[in-house]
Amino acid sequence: MLALKTSQCTVATGERSRAEARLGITKMDIEGVGRRRCFLCICPTDGAGDLLCPACALARLLRRGEGSDARGIGKLVRGPGDGLVTHFGLCRAWRRMLADVP
């Protein structure tokens, strides 16, 4: 997911928004065609919004990247100051967050 680019994602709005991420070909993809992951909005119908909604979360990430990369080739997930996010960095951050958990 860290290698996903903004150009691989779309969000369709309507009564219930839908988001789609087109994943590239990986070693686990024996057909060699990549995969699509589709997410439906699960926000409450009263319009309150939900921070756990996968479709809305993807839409927020795409909006965040609109101004910084007009060509759509940039990374979807970026760190502070639009820095690169790595698996090693994520592991280190989780270790620090969980260090004081009993």
Describe the main β-sheet briefly: 3 strands, antiparallel
- Radius of gyration computed on alpha carbons: 16 Å
Number of strands: 3
Helix content: 10-25%
**Strand and helix order:** EEEHH
Shape: globular
Rounded average pLDDT: 78
Low-confidence stretches: none
Q: What distance lies between the first and last C-alpha atoms, to the nearest angstrom?
A: 30 Å
Report the β-strand fraction as a percent range. 15-25%
Order of strands, widest sheet:
1-2-3
Q: Helical region count?
A: 2
Quick take:
By secondary structure, this protein is α+β, with helices and mostly antiparallel strands. It has helices at 54-66, 87-98, and strands at residues 9-12, 18-23, 35-40.
